[in-house]
Amino acid sequence: MAVPTEYYLVLSAAVFCIGLFGILTRRNALMFLMSVELMLNAANINLVAFSFMHGNLTGQVFSLFTMALAAAEVAVGIGIILVLYRNFEDVDVTKATTLRW
């Protein structure tokens, strides 16, 4: 017996809300990136659940594209975090308002 689609949707909503809470409350850039990853994974859960429910592979293909997007986002984000740490010796995103050439 398969797990109902509603369970996946509830799981996805919970993971998305945790990621959104992390983005809105954290100042650390690493925690900010991890929260964005949680939100992207919640979208992937939705895509795969609906793909399985409708019996086609379109959602799974879009999920692979989302994973590629997440990998690129992490690469750029780590670069930004390294610049933050070099200039301010901290990864607090509120100090980045004075970042200039």
CATH architecture designation: Orthogonal Bundle
Strand content: under 5%
Unreliable spans: none
How would you spell out the order of helices and strands? HHH
SS-based structural class?
mainly alpha
Q: What does the overall shape look like?
A: elongated
Helical proportion? over 70%
Q: Please tell me the overall pLDDT.
A: 89
Query: What is the fold named in CATH at topology level?
Result: Helix Hairpins
Could you give the count of β-strands?
0
- Could you give the distance between the termini? 60 Å
SS element count, helices: 3
The domain tally reads 1
Describe this structure in words.
The chain crosses the membrane at residues 6-24, 31-52, 64-85. With 101 residues, this protein is mainly α. It contains three helices and no strands. The protein has helices at residues 5-25, 29-54, 58-88. The longest helix is centred in the C-terminal third of the chain and has 31 residues, at 58-88. The model has no long low-confidence stretch (mean pLDDT 89).
